[in-house]
């Protein structure tokens, strides 16, 4: 049964939560893929494994280090890949698909922009926006981080569950 809701409630292990509104008019296949993964409870128990001040928080990797994905890659719905209808700009709160160098390598990993990242426009498939609880995503920045970019949380930032909201 297809879920008609385009809002996803993200509940964190911390007890905090936020809501992502999905925009199929910009990236229909991306939204369909994300909704399928939410329906399958794919994201439950996964982490935000990369958090970078002034840029973004990235999650959705089943391995937890940015190298994994679901079983399926999707077509990159962004201008450089021939999708001119995706004009959603990477501004604060916008949710977009992470990918490797290949334009059609997005799978399950996504990121949420902290600030304007319009330099990503046309290169990544933006497909939603945090419409409630952005302060929860901001709290990820308070976690101690290590690594080359200083973006790997020392204490895991765990997604308890994702479900469809009204």
Walk me through the topology.
Elements: E1 7-12, E2 17-22, H1 28-39, E3 48-52, E4 56-59, E5 94-97, E6 110-113, E7 126-132, H2 134-139, E8 145-146, E9 152-153, E10 159-165
Terminal CA distance reads 16 Å
The name CATH uses for the topology is Cyclophilin
Provide the helix percentage: 10-25%
Principal-axes shape call: globular
Beta percentage is 25-35%
- Per CATH, the class reads Mainly Beta
Uncertain spans, ≥5 residues at pLDDT below 50? none
Domain count: 1
**DSSP strand tally:** 10
Protein name: Peptidyl-prolyl cis-trans isomerase
GO molecular function: peptidyl-prolyl cis-trans isomerase activity
Keywords: Isomerase, Rotamase
InterPro entries: Cyclophilin-like_dom_sf, Cyclophilin-type_PPIase, Cyclophilin-type_PPIase_CS, Cyclophilin-type_PPIase_dom, Cyclophilin_A-like
Structure keywords:
two-stranded antiparallel sheet; 166 residues; globular
Give a structural overview.
The protein is mainly beta and 166 residues long. The chain has helices at 28-39, 134-139; strands at 7-12, 17-22, 48-52, 56-59, 94-97, 110-113, 126-132, 145-146, 152-153, 159-165. The protein has one domain: Beta Barrel (Cyclophilin). The chain has two helices and ten strands. A hairpin with a 5-residue loop joins strand 8 and strand 9 (152-153).
Short synopsis of the structure:
The chain is mainly beta and 166 residues long. It is built from two helices and ten strands, in the order E-E-H-E-E-E-E-E-H-E-E-E.
